[in-house]
Amino acid sequence: MISKLLDRLSEYLAHRKGLLPIIGLVFIVVNLIVQFVFPLTPLAFSNIFLHIGLIVAIFGLMLAWAL
Q: ∠ at Cα 59 (42, 34), nearest 5°?
C-alpha cells in the first residue's frame, strides 16, 4: 500500500518538478505575514512556517534533481 502511494506520488511530482519548492516558498511568505500581522502570538515566536517551508523547499529541490 505504501509502495503504491509512493509510486503514484513520484509519478505526480515527476511532471510538476517545481511544485514542492513553490509550496515551501508559500510557507515562508506565510511566516513573514504572520510575523507582521500577529506579532505576539506563539506562532510568530516559533517560526514554524519558516522551518516547514525550508524543509519542503529543500526536499522539493532534491527530489526534482533526482527525478
A: 25
